[in-house]
Amino acid sequence: MTSDSPVPATAGRPSLLILGASVRAAAQSALRAGFDPTCADRYADSDLRACARVLPVADFPAGLWHALRNTASVPWIYTGSLENHPALLQRIARDHPLLGTPAEVVRAVRDPVRLNRALVAAGLPALSVRLGVEPVPPADSTWMLKPRRGAAGRGVAVWNAQARGHLTLAEPHYFQRRATGTEHSALFLAGPLSTELLGTSRQLVGLDWAGAPSAAWCGNLVPDVLTGTTLEMVAAIGWAVAAAFPLRGLFGCDFIMADGVPWLTEVNPRYTGSTELLEFHRQTSLLSQHLRACRVMAG
Predict the structure, then answer these.
(1) What pLDDT is attached to residue 151?
(2) Is there a single domain that holds both residue 70 and residue 119?
(3) Second label for 76, Cα 20 to 30 Å away, from 15, 99, 145, 198?
(4) Is the predicted pLDDT of residue 3 greater than 70, yes or no?
């Protein structure tokens, strides 16, 4: 592999290719799990270059394909934002064995209408959705405007009079009924026989002191405070999602918690931003569990 990173290959460790918008956390998870990571992301920042070999990417995400053109065929995983590019996932998976949810399942679970129907069919809380081609809901702050290819809160806004000129309206988008409460994330492991809730975390969103837009993801905190019936409902939602869509390995669910009811806002079918935190909190390698599950499910 051609790399502009000074980190040498590690003899005796199996290779793992990691792709995403920002992959430092996954690279360090891979090192703790005993793998030798080679990475390509949008930033190639110094903390990533200090722990892994980094492939230069001229144009993210389209340039990932070109960055890999001279690489050997090795197993790979993807992290944040690549769920918005299933065609790219499919293309890369032709040359490198994917250890994760395949492109066709990503398309399905990221479809807000299909996800809503799965929750309704399971008798679970579900926020109403409307696609951008359907009648626009009233701009009365009871709906959220969201991009179809969103990540980390980009382009999300309360649908009100001020949002009528929002840039998100110029791209594929949808509307989701607004829930008000606290933001949380749940991490699951979809295996060949069952789906396990690995843990939850409190999301940090739109922090003023960080200069973040109102819906921008700023990080996660563990441990979370969810217990009892609420936690059981979170687990049931993850099980229903995995039953409706054949997810593989790690996946995340984001929620708004309102009066003890978890309202699912989106599913991230890959290694998530909270994985690293839960690995430290649980003192175990969740990436290792992900890779084992994916190998078994891939047959």
Answers:
(1) 87
(2) no
(3) 198
(4) no
Neighbours of 196 (CB within 10 A): 16
Residues composing the chain: 299
User: In 98-157, where does DSSP find H-type helix?
Assistant: 103-109, 112-121
* Angle of the 275-282 helix axis to the 286-297 helix axis, nearest 10: 110
Residues 164 and 243 placed together within one structural domain of the fold: no
pLDDT band of 19, cuts 50, 70, 90: very high
Do 237 and 260 fall within a single domain? yes
Q: How many CA atoms lie within 13 A of 256 on its CB side?
A: 15
List of E strands, 153-229 = 157-160, 173-177, 182-190, 195-205, 217-221
Structure tokens at 185: 């994330």
The predicted pLDDT at position 1 comes to 43
Residues 6 or more apart in contact with residue 173 via CB below 8 angstroms: 132, 145, 146, 147, 148, 155
Same domain (yes/no): 204, 152: no
Q: Which pLDDT tens digit goes with each residue over 125-176? A: 999 999 988 889 999 999 999 999 988 889 999 999 999 999 999 999 999 9
Is there a single domain that holds both residue 39 and residue 82? yes
Question: Is residue 269 included in any domain, yes or no?
Answer: yes
157 and 135: one domain? yes
Please indicate, yes or no, whether residues 292 and 190 belong to a single structural domain of this protein: yes
Question: 171 in a domain, yes or no?
Answer: yes
What whole-number distance in Å separates Cα of residue 282 and Cα of residue 224? 13
pTM of the model as a whole: 0.94
Predicted pLDDT at 133:
82
The DSSP code for 129 is: E
* Cα 107 to Cα 238: distance, rounded to the nearest angstrom: 17
